Amino acid sequence: MTPPIILETRDLQKDFKGFVAVNRVSLKVQRGHIHAIIGPNGAGKTTFFNLLTKFLAPSAGRIIFNGQDITADQPAQVARRGIIRSFQISAIFPHLSVLENVRVALQRRSEQSLQFWRSEKSLHPLHDRVMELLTQVGIESYAHHMSAELPYGLKRALEIATTLAMEPELMLLDEPTQGMGLEDVKRVSELIKKVSADKTIIMVEHNMKVVASIADRISVMQRGQVIAEGPYAEVSTNPQVLEAYMGQEEAPSALEAAPHAH
Questions:
Q1: What is the pLDDT of residues 151-187, one digit of tens each?
Q2: Domain residues of the chain, as ranges?
Q3: What is the pLDDT of residues 105-153, one digit of tens each?
Q4: Which CATH fold would you assign to the domain 1-82+169-262?
Q5: Interatomic CA distance for residues 135 and 254, integer angstroms
Q6: Residue 118: phi, psi to the nearest 5?
Q7: Which of these, 153, 155, 163, 172, lies nearest to 45 by C-alpha position?
Q8: What is the maximal distance between C-alpha atoms in the chain?
Q9: E-strand stretches of 100-238
Q10: Who contacts 172 (Cβ-Cβ below 8 Å, separation ≥6)?
């Protein structure tokens, strides 16, 4: 049975003083899928992400989440609905411990959100959940380390833990493996696959091997439009996709070199 649609865009568009960055994009994301958005530099991927999280207001079109029109929602409303974005640049507090970073995210979900005067002791009930989340992303042994001291790949794992603490129904991951060595890429790819078990994930990603190994469905953007969509095996051989990547450092050789999706 086909999974239901959790998020849909209908003719979504964003203009910047005459320049069309996102051009009538109609996309359907199925619940439980990892849906990757790829494309050459300047294709409109990040602008599209910014429209989904309401960091930008669309010039035209609609965004439907769980059957409800959220086009006019503010960013905080979108977050409350369960759409949580993890940023391209690691968004953690460097001078807090790993445990404290996740606890801050949990507080935002609880009634203790802005009660900074509460004692440290009153936050202890959150610790069990913090440790659950750290265990889920494989960094529980670093709980009392300062987050600034973590290697880059573990910082991304921490960021995913803080995103999970917000109890997202839909996670948006912006370039989750950017700037990583092979070992970290593998760790974070496996982590994304693991946490996707009961979540829906939309990710913008340049690393074609990552996309090939974990994405259920791929949308390819070029000049603000979706030019192809489908599983990796399909889009990686699409002549229009290969042409779009000509002259780009990450493809077409990367498209051809990557293993096929499972």
A1: 988 998 999 999 998 889 999 998 899 888 888 999 9
A2: 1-82+169-262, 91-167
A3: 888 766 554 455 455 555 667 888 999 999 999 999 999 999 999 998 8
A4: Rossmann fold (3.40.50)
A5: 33
A6: -65, 150
A7: 172
A8: 61
A9: 170-174, 200-204, 217-222, 225-230
A10: 49, 52, 53, 83, 84, 85, 86, 201, 202, 203
Cβ(225)–Cβ(24) under 8 Å?
yes
**Amino acid letter, residue 92:** I
Backbone φ and ψ for 22, nearest 5 degrees, come out as -130, 120
pLDDT digits (tens, 9 = 90+) for 59-81: 999 999 999 999 999 988 998 89
Residue listed under structure tokens 């700037």: 179
Q: Which two tokens stand for residue 25?
A: 């994009």
19-30, strands of its sheet edge to edge: 19-30, 5-16, 60-65, 68-69
CA–CA dist 143, 99 (Å, integer): 5
